[in-house]
Amino acid sequence: MTHSAPLHVPPHADMRAVVQVIGVASALGAPGDGPAAGPAALERHGLLQRLKGTGIGASWQETLEPVTTPPAGALMRERLDAVGALAQRVADHLTALAPEVFPLVIGGDHAVGIGTWRGVASRIAPRGALGLIWIDAHLDSHTERSTHSGNIHGMPLAALLGEGDAALSGVAGPRLDPANVVIIGARAWEHEEHERLTRLGVQVFDMAEVRERGMGAVFCDALSVVRERTAGFGVSIDLDALDAAAFPAVTCPETEGIAPDELCAALLALRGCGDFVAMEIVEYLPDRDPGGMCADWVANIACAALGPSTYLLRAKEREFGAHNYAPLPVVFHHGKGIWLWDVEGRRYLDMMSAYSAVSFGHANPRLLHALNDQAQRLALTSRAYSNDRLPLLMERLCGLLGYDRMLPVNTGLEAVETALKTARKWGYKVKGIPTDKAEIIACEGNFHGRSITIVGMSSEEQYRDGFGPFPAGFRRIRYGDADALEAAITPDTAAFLVEPVQGEGGILVPQAGYLARCAEICRRHNVLLIADEVQTGLGRTGRLLGCDHEGVHPDGLILGKALGGGLLPVSAFLADAAVMDVLRPGDHGSTFGGNPLGAAVALEVLAILEETRPWEHAARLGERLMARFRDAHLPCVREVRGRGLLVGIELDPAQLRATTAAELLLARGIATKDTHNTVLRFAPPLVITEAELDAAADVVIDTLAAACAHRGQAPLQP
User: Residues of the signal sequence (predicted)?
Assistant: First the structure.
């Protein structure tokens, strides 16, 4: 079944809807033939498929080749004429493209740039001038008289600016204005080139400045230069701008260049530029890339620059996705440590860590190594067989937390369902509850997942609306009220399910002694105490487990989120043999539960926990964060509460709604989320430093203070 109508978005949101790849298989200007094979090699390696997989509507239009190729040792005159003829052909080809086409030129050596940018300048000439960002290790500003090497691919920028032999500088099309041309990453040049560019007024951000200020800051400045009084701008990337250690597949490798990932991160800014009109990538040598690593980087570079914008991606999500989420107005592209970057390259401090799942930071290198190493050996067998990772995880997790048995599943919801099934069967087989009479007690304000069984326990009306009838056998009591637990227990009660801190409920922390009293009540009545530590477990609250704050060892323990290191869904239910051994083969299972890939990552998570003891860091920083918020005495804040690095700010909705506050914080680079429209929650990765947390607190306090001051006592609308 196909969608009945096309996606409707404003024209500006789908800026590069039609990308056409034009290969130029030429090495006419280079000292060797290698670059000529670049376009075909990249096409074979799947560049087009990578573009399409990123959401780019791309096609490979054709690959142009030189009409004549001078023999080895040919005179400069013959070589210049051949390069000029090819450049004119490229320029004519680009000029003739349909107006809606965005050209992506794949070289070939950099001499093809003469044709690329003359042609692009001609395309936009009716609207105005062209600006150009030239990313290169060299200045490419020789002429036939100043060249030291005799390589014509060191001449294209001078030719585009109108200097050099007429065969190159005379290619039809507007000359570029030096005031709108920027070079980034240069680190190897002759004095003649530098003098020429200085005289003409081209701005050069050399590699020393890139290292000092960062690629992102330099690229931002470059954008301001090339967009000043122009109708559009292009980006030309000579791959030798990249560090040769990371990208050796180029004609003239130079050390200490731009890191490929830093270039990709900077290029994300182009997704939001409606005046970005063309791109060129040149100098890829496939014979120096036998494993395809550099070809992958070429695809990453193109995808970073040309991928869809926030607006378009959100439009697609709204049109083709079920409307069961209302995400904040951002689309994230990548993360590292405590930071997230959106698809336009803006950076955000992650104060949510995916509801505590990313406790050890995004792209944690140790966890990535464990994931990649295991993925190359064995990822999945199902539990029909044993694998060599799961038994080790079972042993280490049980030993760390003091239980006899561990049952692995995937999501937190599955682990809760596992606990409920096990508790009921224990109630029937061990406690002697009559068949189908077992009861489980939960709390008001709980959040244990979204299955029909679990939302049947919820007190949140929206979670229940339209999903009944619900399974029987569940009761709710007031959270934090141990007397209510005692009063609710009957001879048919099998278990009490509780969160040490209610996260979704609003970061609610019970009074001291609550869990200890509940444990005592459960022991006295032969009722299982089951702690849902999917969010609070593994260091989040300032102890290894949330229950550890009161020295409580629950009969059953539910873990998830952080156990998978933010890379995979990994969860578990732990209990002693007296509880877990009621299960027999066939009673419960999961195809993916306990898979070797997830087990390998979880094993590394446990190793990191034992080595770094992040709960100690979380305890200290959590107290510091809450003190900062309380000491600010913000008029819109009713209460600050939390435990460790699980902190909530309850707002007065008459002054500031939490949903609005979350959007205001997002605009200032803080990614958080509200709950119930009244509480902002803060749960950064546990690897955050004190300085980083203080900086985040400054932004939060300033944002909330400004919002309240701006609107006074009137509610601030989204």
Answer: none
